[in-house]
Amino acid sequence: MPSETVDFGRRNEPPRAEPADLPSTTRSAGMNPLRILAKRALMGVATAWVVLTAVFGLFTLTQDWVLQGQIGAARFAGENDPEVLAEIRAEYFAARGLDRPLTEVYADYLGRMVTLEWGTSLGGDAVFPLVTDAVVRTATYVLPALVIAVAVGVGVGTYAALNPDGRLASGGIGAAYLLFALPNFWIGGLLYSRTLGDSTAASPLLYDHLLPIAFAAATLLGGYVSYSRAHSREYASADFVSLVRAKGASDRRVAAHVLRNAAIPFFSMLFTEALGLLVLATFVIEVLFGIEGFGLLLLDAVENRDLPVLLGGTVVIIWVGVIGNVVQDLAYGYLDPRVDIG
Question: N or C: which end of the chain has fewer CB within 10 A?
Fold first, then answer.
């Protein structure tokens, strides 16, 4: 009786899928930057319309504290004539272009936002160059702070994940958390008050650039260290890391493999965390040091109810978010071709 050869190793193995049968999530998706840009741009237009409408409604349909202050000052001076008070209101609304029907004012403002002809502020300056100059001034300390925070945060977090028992890792994490917890505004105010009266000690470079960069970086550093350490630890004990170590790879090479796999979740956090914390930090830093940047400009616009400036600043924030999302999508496709970003 002839013998029959049986391949027990393949008896229960399912048939191999052809490339066309593979799930779409495992196939490399084609990246179409123009499609991504168009999709995000449409989303940005819709978001801008909703946010601008909400801001316009809040400012035009709620109590005007600036007008109430003027009316109160007139009454405190003994002026109670209704006609005089009505004239004060009429002059106030005319100076702000609000003496027309609200629908007409609303359509006018939206049209200006689209054409980038944002009108003039209450001080008589053109709004568009005023906002762009403020954004550039803020970027001079925000961008260096972001680069420093990302570089130091990723380095410390990854090192701590790969060397969890090392003293250097523990010290680095502790220092990052300490910088994050310190009241930067109090320290900056203390330094500023101590040197304000000393013309030789007060340095424009220190207060206009170095301290704002340091405080903004410290605001971001704790979060970046924590997130990079958490995401890197997920892969620090993975099989491929053990294999890379067994082949004699250097610590730098191992860290590069870990970071490549942890890059997508960390990159998602990077932009969201930066936008949220820096928006708050810029207000504090610019008020503290008197920096005529974007945060101080928006605060003055809110205080004075300068609607053109406020709406122009709102457009800038919206488009920074849209551009950041586009960069995120493109980075996902570069970091992991399996991600379908199309």
Answer: N
